[in-house]
Amino acid sequence: MKEIKLTIALVFSLLLLAGCETLVELDLPDHKPRIVVNAVFNPDSLFTVDLSSSQSVFTDHTYTPITDATIKVYKDGQYLFAVEHKGKGIYKADRKPEALKHYELQVSAPGHASIKAASYVPAAPSVRDLKATRVPATNNQSAGIQLSFVLEDEPGQENYYYIQAYAPDINPFNNQAYNRAIRIEFNKPIKYEFNMENRWFFSDKLFNGQKIPLDLFLETNQREMRHVQIAHITKKYYDYVRTLEKQSYSDNFGVMPMPVANNIEQGLGLFAGYNSVTVKILP
Amino acid sequence: MSKRLLLFGVVWLFCAFPTLAQTNILNQKVSIHQVNSSVSEVLEALSTKYNLSFSYSEDLVPLKEKITIKGDGLPLHQVLGIIFKDTGIRYVLIGKQIVLQPALKSKGKKIQPNLSGYVRDISSGEALAGTTLSIRPAGSTTNNYGFYSLPLSAGEAMLEIRYLGYAPLQVVLPAVSKDTTITFLLQPTSSNLSEVEILSANVSDLEQANKLTMRGADIKQLPRLMGEADAVKALQLMPGVQGGKEGTSDLIVRGGSPDQNLILLDGVPVYNVSHLLGTFSIFNPDAIRNVELIKGGFPAPYGGRLSSVVDVQLKEGNNQRFAGEGAAGLMSSKLLLEGPIKNEKTAFLIAGRRTYLDLLGAAAAALSGESMSKYHFYDLNAKVNHTFSAKDRLYLSVYAGQDAFSDKQEFGDATGMEQQRFNMRWGNSTGALRWNHVFGKRLFSNLTLTHSRYGFSQNSENKIKQRDKQTQRLVDYESSIEDWGAKAEFDFAAGLRHSIRFGGSYTFHTFRPEQTILKTDSITLLSDSFSEIQAQEFYTYAEDRIQLGERLQVTTGVHLSGFSVNGKNFSSLQPRLAMGYTFPKSISVRASYATMAQYLHLLSNTATGTPTDIWAPATDKVKPQRSWQATLGAAKLLSQNQLELTSDLYYKEMKDVAEFRDGADFISDFLRSGPETDFSNFAAPPYETRIASGRGWSYGSEWMLRKRQGQTTGWVGYTLSWSWRQLNGINHNQKYPYTYDSRHSISVVANHQLTPKLSLGGSWVYRTGYVTTLPAAHYKAYNEPVANPGSTSPHVASVDYLGERNNYRMPGYHRLDLSLTHTKKKSWGERSWNISIYNAYNRKNPYFMQLSSPNLSTSSSSTRQLYQVSLFPILPSFSYGFKF
Questions:
Q1: Cα B550 → chain centroid
Q2: Is B641 among the domain residues?
Q3: What's the domain count of chain A?
Q4: Residues B537-551: pLDDT tens digits?
């Protein structure tokens, strides 16, 4: 995507002729810390919860992990298991969530109000007719892979997705394995709605219940194994990332501050499930 | 005792002297010999021979009848008795004048004659709406079409006709026995240099309560932003009216939301009055005759919005001579032409305005070699009216205005080519066909067919051609509201102190919100957040205005409205009451109560004026907004009627007001992505799920001291106000100050005529800062950072938790604007230069507040900082105007 062009600035410069900033002194009341949950779960990974404390708006401390919390997980209303602390506020169970099951999380920690949250794991996305074609570089486009497939959207409900692509690699600085991000372009028919890090999000609002042929371009010129993850996510996950992305750009004039969606009762953060299929494209 | 005797003596003299005088003249012996002469010839002969003075109007008394009279040495009263026998003429002696009048029909029921007609400008023939016609102690005002109807009492009466900026007219009306039609022509005062008596409608009149009026000429005297005088910006300087965010065309009236104003252009509702995101309104100041803002105590004919009625009346067209005016400014030019067609029965007006930012952009593109986007807006007003008879007149009024933004880009080489096109257009069109008809002499009717449409459309096209393969992707996004309607209004003059208005209206709404069509080579996708909705709205009303005695005025009315959408029906019965009492020292006290209902919601999460503002109907999930408002006020004319002082207290309660939770964020997306903004992203769930509704209430006091005429004109206004909201799902359901809550507002506006050619104007405004929402805490975000060895890839690591809604009040806003206008007469007409300075002392006013992003990687001692972002610095501008 290209930068904002000078020409648009010309129009709006009339409104922003000397938009200038002045530092303002401000006193806000003390903040009482609340439990912050960051837990996104799927059937392919162990159940993991990241716990930390919220902090005053003017402080720049790194977030304090909560290490002494009690976490209980319930499935479809029945107590399932407790999640153990593994260090630095990360709690991990030895089980994986199941598709189409509803989970509830209850957390209590000294010095904080207890919280609870609920979500579920959606069905895996239905992907058919996969086809990958290598595309050589041209003067105005780098080399890559043309990936097409048909996404079968489940009718009668709102569905949300993200796609990300990566290639396993070795970090030359520490020789550690990692997944190197690959940029995706949506050729047709739909475009992504927004992206967060390497995840490219969209909803089915334009093709609800349809079998939609998607045509993507993966920007990669190396002969390597590529992974393309197509994830079916819950609405809570989508709303959280959508609003977080909007809040991160809230420095535009005239826009009301965007509250980030929060589905933690008495606390803050995100507790949401997703289910995905990962396509491997051979070199 | 002696004082009583003196008083008795004076009264006696006043009563007795005219009686004695009358006896003397009428007993005078006269001789007359006229054969087959008209009555007027006989009277002329008597007048010449005996130095008698007869006073009469040939319209009122017929004097052409032929008579024969012969007599010598007869008393005058006997001769007059013979002359007027069976002519239907009687006479009375007033002083030394013999005044002839139509004879009263003394037998049977007493008939009250009626005076009706129009009041017009003598030079242009423009109807003068709101002209005061008073026959003490009662009176009347002309309606929007300049029509008046004034029942007369028996006997002679003194009629005073007053209109701001025109020489007052005093007419002695002889006693009339039958209905009479007179068109009064008022002469504009030629210069502001002479201090003359206040000529406006009496501010103490009940009809003026809760109402602010400005003429087109008043608006053009005010300092200008970027060379453009603006009606909405002028209203923002009035007490009780806030201007929203700086530079916008929002009107926040008595704590109401920007969508709660019924804005009428020649009686037709307009849905988006902004150009260039509100920097200018759609009203061409040259074409404006009058702007009226009603803040409370709403007359029964008005409804459909909770907080105000803004009635913008355009000129009808000069029916006396061909005339024109225009101006050229930094950003735009405009031209208005008007004149009669063939004769004074038909007149036209055509006015146009266009910006030339696109031309400036094209020139810059040519110089720089860079491609440039194009932006412009235009307004076009066209009107024609024809007078068929004294009772029938037809008006046709059309408005069209549009903002347009376009961009085109091409990339590539011989191996491939990508072409992007982007077009965005938004604008209003309105039309009105009006027929004025007078039934008899007392019933004025106005039948109007109306059309109004606001539409926004965006389309982008992306073509990629590579070798033999071509792909194409088109996105069309549209939203619109379109109304067709008809209304009938009737004004009935029931008596000298009693008038009745009644009427009704029907509107057929078509809402087409948020339709997205996406086309590619192989597939077409269509998204309607909710499909086209058709709704019907009606209202009927009746209003009775009575003057009870010399001091008490009462207006009672009822407005019944209804709305039907998707099989769901809403209705509202709205009582209206206003009372005014004038104390002996000319202080008038008035009180009012009015309820209102609004069946439309505006979907916008920012100020209004953004192109993506979408109007949507109330549904069973989102109820209509309703309100009631009570006011108590006082008014007095001061300093020998040079100054008007008004004060009002108000309380307004609003139910089911709606706010967007986190709506379509057009501005940020557009600024970030520019022409590549993908409007398919704006397709969204049904709007009912995206808004929160609840209660709102506001109260306060407004003061205004205004001088309307003379060398120096202007006003000082002060408003003390509170405005609150309490919406379900917002701020934990607790009350919070409304976004535009401002405790104190002051405006000082003045225009001084330094010399006949040079005038200096200025306005200074101050208000307590608006409130905004600042984060109360921040916490760790869920993210999946992109691993990128060797560099730090940006990711959102932190979430700001927004605490209570509108928890921070921004610094106060104040600004001084100045203008200097030099006018010079030329052989062809008049030209003027205007130099304006906006924000003369370069005050950095808060536009919005912004917290710096947390930097979690720095030491723990560092803190985030709060910044205030300002918009307009000092902005000088100039414009050249002409008139002929």
A1: 30
A2: yes
A3: 2
A4: 999 999 999 888 778
